[in-house]
What does this fold into?
Amino acid sequence: MKLSVSSLIFALLFSFLLETSASTDENFLQCLTLHSGNDSISKLIYTSSNSSYSAVLKFDIRNTGFSTPSTPKPQVIVTPSLISHIQATLNCSLKHGLQVRVRSGGHDYEGLSYVSPVPFGLLDLINLRNISVDIENSFAWVQSGATVGEVYYWIASKSRTLGFPAGLCRTMGIGGHFSGGGYGTMMRKYGLAADNVLDTHLIDVKGGGGGSFGVIVAWKIQLVPVPSNVTMFTVKRNLEQNATKILHRWQYVADKFDTDLFIRVVMTGINSCQEGNRTMQASFNSLYLGGKDKLLPLMQEKRTEMSWIQSMVYFAGFSSEQSPDILLTRGPSILYFKGKSDYVKNPIPEIGLEGIWQRLYEKEASTAMLILTPYGGRSEISESSIPFPHRAGNIYKIQHLVSWSEEENAAPEKYVNWIRRLYDYMTPYVSQSPREAYLNYRDLAIGKNNEGNTSSSQASIWGCWM
Ligand SMILES: Cc1cc2nc3c(=O)[nH]c(=O)nc-3n(C[C@H](O)[C@H](O)[C@H](O)COP(=O)(O)OP(=O)(O)OC[C@H]3O[C@@H](n4cnc5c(N)ncnc54)[C@H](O)[C@@H]3O)c2cc1C
It folds into this structure.
């Protein structure tokens, strides 16, 4: 009997799948091949018995706490390179009752892009990372699997005077970062990344991601003007140098500065110069969108002029002399952490700030920090413009963070409890009724849907804008 080419391909794929995964639903995999229109998808499918499965899964996991042997794993990972692969994955998942988790950069604080309590497949967009920049018309099309660092790099490679107002961490995926808002050093002047989205390509199959509406494949973004030279400076003050008083004053001006000026604060413990002692430090991390001659002459601190792309290298955590090529790197990292967020509408009194320092002195807080990001600037953007209701009325946002080591991950409760105690302590000082939180700093402790039993009345008591 003569076999047709397509039935031969199918037979080969089918036997491959049988070999590599005894437990995976073969009908699902068969469905993928048939629905994607060609057999190219077969090379992009990973099941647990495939030797690359674990490496592919771990490559974009940012919170290692969700990468332990007991973490639920996807039955199948699909890394589409074509739109038809996404459509096939969504269609077949729907047909076979498999939940889909969508991952762009894998930075979700709670691992929601690659973990689920029910049987699921992972749609990993790492191969959909094309970026095309149109300098003449000041826009770019970027695919969701690209990283923020790649977007900055390719814009800057074509123009020194255009940029984009997204976040600081170079490895964040565009898909999750833009769909939750996305803020960075230019937020006060140009708003969020999401405010600068002109169009999207979305695949809707009555389900999918965003955590909700569909899979966003690509984004058309408005590039924004940046000066050919920006100025960067960092001022550090510890408790012995009046950190509390300076921080207290910062709260009265941070949201009122010229929108070209961004001064955030990192509150953390450091070793003091007296051996064996710790002290607390407020680090004022600043970017001015202009040359240093224009910056307040009052500023006596060392100010460094550089291109906008070099400032993004610095804010991504590298030396400002490091080549921008570093923005193109991506890969697994080891970081166990818990984060929470708050919005502040009235300056916290000095006594309240002192209470934060006290908590940062506790032993569980040796690596903890609070990052205070100033608002103001584009606060006129209405609450209904995009689903981001945190503009007018907020002076700044706080990100609370605590991390621990791999050895300590067997019992991370003491760190999680520490951050909960801090969060409780903050209650009188932060937004109330509702207590606001930043969607992109995902925190399931403030409430979540029950699988398959979503209730808006239950959600209403969370009292949080997510
Ligand atoms: C180290 C670090 C630094 C950070 N710095 C900043 C910062 O400076 N500014 C800031 O605003 N935020 C920051 N964040 C938070 C970051 O914006 C969010 O974690 C964001 O969701 C990351 O996007 P991702 O694509 O990497 O995440 P993923 O984990 O891939 O996705 C996050 C969520 O979006 C969904 N999703 C992903 N892609 C798609 C898609 N294409 N279509 C539909 N749904 C999708 C996922 O299913 C998941 O629910 C930081 C996070 C980390 C870990």
Observations:
- The mean pLDDT is 89.
- The longest strand covers residues 261-271.
- Residues 125 and 332 are 16 Å apart (CA to CA).
